[in-house]
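Q: Can someone sanity-check these two? First one:
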Amino acid sequence: MHSHSPKSTKPTRWWHKIYYGFCETVRHWVLSWIASLPAPTQFIWRNRIFTAVPGLFRSSPQYQLWQNAYAYFITERPQDHQLIKLDAIDLATLKQQGAQPRIAVHAHMFYPEMAPLLATYLAQFPQNIDLFISNPKEQDQAYLYQQFEKLPTIDRLEVRLTPNQGRDIAPMIDPFGKALLEYDYIAHIHSKKSVGTNNIGQLWCDYLWDAVLSNKSERLSKIWELLQDHAMVYPEKFHLIDVANCRWGNHLPRSIALCGELNITPPTTNLTSEDFVEFPVGSMFWARADALAPLLASHLTYQDFEAESGKTDGTLNHTIERNLTHIALSQGLPVAVLQNTFFSHAYP
């Protein structure tokens, strides 16, 4: 019986070393180049490159984070987080309600110079609403009244001077929370600029205001019909915002404590700070008032919020922002997340 010596594997090993060494060099160079780019260019290129050549980056931590986000927000999206393309909906196919809903808008106008644009949106509403405005500067009060008091679509107008504390979230609860509970549907918006945080503040605000306030193609009527069967309706994450910002982070312990204060079941106990969370990024949305009742009827006041110091994360208002969807879902209805039609892949 003849024995055969195994074929030499040295050439294969040699070529493997060359190949894997080359891949490692390219991967390191590309990831370093991506990291050197300013936001939001950095994660736009990251998304494009990871989509185009996933095999090259599969072993990198950056790619694993990217894949986890894609799974959470797209392929494994929970059934109660419904991703909806609003433009594709025929209003006639939605369940038409009988009497017109009572609707209120809360607008926190830290930047009063954006009031004329807001008035333009509100003037195109298909039914009359009540408008509650908060603003922390006494000198702006008269100007804000002038911008909105003659709009034919506004039945009731209330402008309140509120402390510069808790940003847009605190005044939604204190002083307006109890008043908002008297309505069927409410919208929450604010004059967003992100001054000193990033260079996309105006683009981000334009995206959110168009999604929440525009009535193009009967958009508002469709949103209000969706609210018959959904706790909240809000736009998908703006595509120039890094999905890494959509995690629980250091808000998780405080989120659990907040849910205890609101008498609702807290987020799942096996979550970590690295886990992603579905919420209205930028805190602009439509909601059923009863879906946010635990928050709006709470005993929270503006004094519970940190003094304004320019923080971009880690405050009570940021914690509440991440819990808005969870609070709404706790009342038994799903949420509708409006698909970003300006960019094909907002996530990740």
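And here is the second, same format, sequence then tokens:
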Amino acid sequence: MATRQHEVPTVDLDPFSHDALGDPAGTDETLRETGEVVWLSAHGIWASGRYDVVERILRDPETFESSSGTGITNVKTEENWRKPSVILENDPPDHTRYRRVMASVLSARVVRRLTEGFQASADRLVAGVVARGEVDAATDLAEAYPMSVLPDALGFAKEGREHLLPYSTLNFNAAGPRNELYWNALQAAEYATQFVNWQMRREAIDQSGLGGIIFAAADAGDISEEDAEMLVRTFLSAGLDTTIFGIQFALKALAETPEAWAALKADPARARIVFEESLRTWAPSPYIARTTTREVEIGGVRMGPAQKVLLSVAAANHDPRRWERPDEFDITRDTSGHLTFGTGIHGCVGQMMARMEATCLLTALAQQAESIELAGTPRIKHINWLRGFEELPMRLTPRAA
């Protein structure tokens, strides 16, 4: 338990409660505006939603480590549901070695090589979906596309892919507290965990895909065979839900902002810009956690060593001290500096892949759809460490031939 000064602002809100998950904007505002650093009494940890504080902490891995876990569980002192990630939950110098391997797997050259095939897949999917008119964009577009192209690119087996999302969902629920969402996800992922443990292996992967590049690093002696399996797992635990929900938010934003849709339709090359502003406005993964390695003071608040700090990147992306009109979706703004992918040495290594996937899908939509609008009320999906939709009903009109 932390020793706190009496003047430290305290937040009684539980960010992972049903009510808080249903009101993400209100939750973010409370965390951000109560103070630079606040005490989250529901979980006995620190938290911040101020842009300057969140960015400072993410850029100081010596004081705020990742190896104790990037969720609220301290994986060094508490039992976790899986082995820590060798890249997400690691610090230099080991982190540097693993990141170098992942950077080679997801280099700009590799992403460029994949783009043509990813775009063709997006074109085919969008053509079929637009022709249907009314669809659930949450699953028919935002989920269907990454769930096809990413496992294919990795060289995963065709069978068993229905287990990938339950596994990833468990991973993000486990980053939060051991609440009902976590226990339900754990039960739902019983067979998914077994499948992923099998799919991580060299023998289960087509070596001509991205997974083969990872195992080639093991053959070269850069990492061990077990390390290679763990890096393959990273794609599953970090690269599916976040991309899916990021695309969902971009689709919803376009449906609700006619001027943005008109601009994208007139110039599909704006797809990347649309996605960036969507990421700033609605971070699919709203939190990152760090753990103090020593006593440190921020904003007049003194934190001791081995204390968790919950960083709300979603709140920081709406900080009026950093952004003008932060709650507006505006594709003309400069989005550089948004923290959705983190920043510093632990900035998301797969961000180029996520951007490429979303850009391909939004480009295809802009080229093939005349109009896009909501056809009902979106239904929020409750996951401790993610934001997205269970249902996103939309009406799409194809362009005239």
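A (reply): Looked at the second one. The longest helix spans residues 108-132. The chain has 16 helices and 13 strands.
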